[in-house]
TrEMBL record, chain A:
Annotated protein name in UniProt: TRAP transporter small permease protein
Annotated PANTHER family: 2,3-DIKETO-L-GULONATE TRAP TRANSPORTER SMALL PERMEASE PROTEIN YIAM, TRAP TRANSPORTER SMALL PERMEASE PROTEIN
Residue ranges of domain Tripartite ATP-independent periplasmic transporters DctQ component in the record: 27-157
Keywords, in A-Z order: Cell inner membrane, Cell membrane, Membrane, Transmembrane, Transmembrane helix, Transport
Its job: Part of the tripartite ATP-independent periplasmic (TRAP) transport system.
GO biological process: C4-dicarboxylate transport
GO cellular component terms, A-Z: plasma membrane
GO molecular function ontology, one term from the record: transmembrane transporter activity
Pfam families in the record: DctQ
Binding partners and assembly: The complex comprises the extracytoplasmic solute receptor protein and the two transmembrane proteins.
Record organism: Sulfitobacter brevis
Membrane topology: Multi-pass membrane protein
Subcellular location: Cell inner membrane
Similarity annotation: Belongs to the TRAP transporter small permease family.
UniProtKB/TrEMBL annotation, chain B:
Location(s), subcellular: Cell inner membrane
The protein, known as: TRAP transporter large permease protein
Molecular function in Gene Ontology: transmembrane transporter activity
InterPro entries: DctM, TRAP_DctM
Function summary: Part of the tripartite ATP-independent periplasmic (TRAP) transport system.
TM regions (residue ranges): 6-39, 51-78, 98-129, 141-165, 177-199, 224-242, 248-265, 286-305, 406-431
A GO CC term assigned to this protein in UniProt: plasma membrane
Amino acid sequence: MQILNRFLNFVSDVLGAIAMLFLAFLMFGTTFDVVVRAITGSPITGVFEFTELALVMVVFLGAGWAHRGDAHIRVTILTDKLSSATRARVVALAWGIGALGVLILAIPATNEAIYSVSIREYRWGYVKIPIWWTKASLATGLWFAFIQMAVQSVQLFLFGEPAPNAAKTGTNRRQDL
Amino acid sequence: MDPTLAPYIAVALIYFLMALGAPVFAALALAGAAGIIMVEDFSFLMTRLKSISYATTAVYTLTIIPLFILMGSFAHHAQVGKKLFDVASRWVGHLPGGLAMAAILTSAGFAATSGSSVATAATVGSVAIPEMKKAGYEGSLSAGAVAAGGVLGVLIPPSVLLIFYAALTETSAGKMLVAGFLPGLLTAIVFMVGIYFIARRGSMRHAVTLRASWGEAVRETGKAWQVLVLFLVVMGGIYLGLVTPTEAGAVGAFVALIMLLMHRASWSGMMGRIVESFQSTINTTVMIMFTMIGAAVFSYFLTLIQVPNHLAEAVVGSGLPPYFIIAMLLLVFVPLGMFLDAFSMMVITIPIMFPTVQSLGFNPIWFGILAVKMCEIGLITPPVGLNCYVIAGIDRETPLPEIFRGALWFVLLEVITIMILFAFPVITTVLPDWMNS
Amino acid sequence: ATSLKFDSYVSDSAGPSWIDRWYLDELEKRTAGEVSIRRYWSGSLNKVGEHLGAVRDGTSEMTLIAPGYYQSELPVTRGLEWYFRMNRADALQKVCRDVYEQFDPLRAEWEERHRSKVLYWTNWNYAPLILRTPINSLEDIKGKRIRAYGVSADVVEALGGTAVAMAAPEVYQSLERGILDGVYGFDFVTAIAYKLHEIAPQFYDIGDGPHAPAATIMNKQVYDGLPDEVRKVSDEIVAEIYGGQFSAIYEEVLASYVKTAEAEGVTLSAISDEQKAMTKALVQPAQVNSWLEGTAKPAGIDGEEMQSLIDAAIQKYDPEATLKRPYEISQES
Ligand code: NA
Ligand code: NA
């Protein structure tokens, strides 16, 4: 149990760290492009084409952190009124639904990724930028998010809600907000 | 399966799944999926969903979302946003609901740099909500104010949505942009007046700052030089032609990072602050984009069975008197706005509506601004209201239904604004007409 | 009765949409209720980049495909993309049709790989070089920042300009703010519809010939499953499109957009024949060779054979073609 959770946290940290690099690229790369263009008159080849791929990486590799940080919006106003034991069951169901929602995206995205890799797909634009690796990462991120939500659902169902703070370890919650 | 029942079942499913506490993106995706299966079949669904996650996220203009959130987060740690908000509250903070008014003013200022409603709501929200909380403001109203303030993002130029309308209808893009300015200001004023009246009753009544003298207000404005720098970098960069709005987001985030690095009080634990900014930006971005994917699935379903087309066609063919037709066309956006995003609504309905608007002899720019405003209301109405989701992501203590409840006041104020714009077209047309001469 | 979905990534007023709408209307009319078609414009059903997959996999039945968006999926078709090789858009349409019939790998790319039948070839008529400020000669292009991608970027770079990739929604505001000096590769009709001329009113005919080809396609299984009657009607309509309807529709559209453009302050000009020849030498045969080397060879396509078929078809159709360029239309009136 502990080991499983620790493993999931480890994976989400690895994927999240990569997502962070891509977010840093969005900021630094674009700024650098603007500066170079202002000085030399020409942009850096490929920054534009790469930008939207970076967004894909941020979103799908960052999905693990988002789940751990409880970032997905849920309506809890009704479930909050339930008794603790019943609530655990209902919230388990809610995350089961979340897992199902990700699953119906993950399966077809995997087919798309296999096709994309098989044709070594690249993006339209001024330069040829391969995109197959982003589609593969996208599918990976979705499968990981599915596993996280499914595991959370099963754990809630079997063991009930953890102590208030335990569920919120890991990533940020802006305490000062 | 009777296909005419499918949309009702799918909509009911959204509410049911949300009530169970399922993540919003999953409720939307599954309800949309159920709808698609009802009118087509499961294998059709699986085929359609192959590329939807990629096509919804690999969009250059959406990169503005994490960049502006990141800028907001750095600025927050460097206490830049707080200063901007301080300035605004120095001017209006002593009034009932003054801090909420300050949030609206800040939104209007930020809207002049950003072309996106969501980015405006996210940035201003992360600055203003903590301050309003501290002052004991009611969660629903303060969250609602910031969510609603976000809609100024696409009215006050720059604005991708105004350009988009111009391209769809082949009206002048330059005039559309200019036309958004006064209605944007009017919206801000109506919001502030509305807040004044709403706040006279509730917990927002308290004056949190003492009335500042004009001199002090001006001096305080001078102290917030960082705000001025950020404002100049972002807005100046756009207006001087150095950067596109998306690039401005990146440069703004970079400058805010420099400010954070130079902010002496933040030196201890700096690395933690930077990582935290990145993490919270990633989390909010994931939440927004997942929700957009869920909404894309649902919106595909509604588009597939041509719900928006049928609504628009029904009004166009109704044979009502001209002004009544325009009013009905605008009302079509209310039910659509509950589920669809502004771009989808425009793409589907404007080509159907526009020939009628033209043949009845109405000013296309005037109608465009009204349509954009109607589309924007969708951002703050349940069940799919992206601005409210963003605020819920920032303010974890106020439940989503509370935020929608708070935003409802602003829907009302939006309706008042739209009625004013409807009755006095000159507010919209004066600037573009003036451009002509 | 047959219900079909036509799903286009562009708006119903974009260049090729005028041809597509005529085909769809005629198909409905001439089959007298047997065929009905739901139309989705501006990427309202599927998003840009998803349309080929949608028709291949059968979630949509018909669509318009611009090969530039599917570079790795349509390597053979991209051999039809060039500038500075011929003069007339109506000839380009027939060139594409002939090569599709004669060159098996091109047909196989559509009918086997993407399980789609090309109903008819179409194209974006003409794409002027659009600039904010007038130029005296092509020398003045040097250092200018011009929005372009794919083969149009090759032309901009060959002329010494800087090709800038940019998302379409940002183009207008970037011209306005001076981030861009111009745009190349936007067809004339779309440029006017997007009101780019409000900021960049200098339109130059640089002798580049017709702008990129596109194909209107139908899922092959759906096509094969249509009643014989319907397929016969479709064939008739397609024959009329190739037989002069394409030119007739575009002539009218171009004439009306030239009128709008001139009324709204556009200056249509052309560079000298000498300069056209100079530009042509900069772009061709380098552009075709880069397709031969960079795309055809790695994909195992006999590019030389395809290009010689193209040359023959150009010889055959270009001299007799009639569809005038916007500049020529403006000279007549
Ligand atoms: Na704006
Ligand atoms: Na809504």
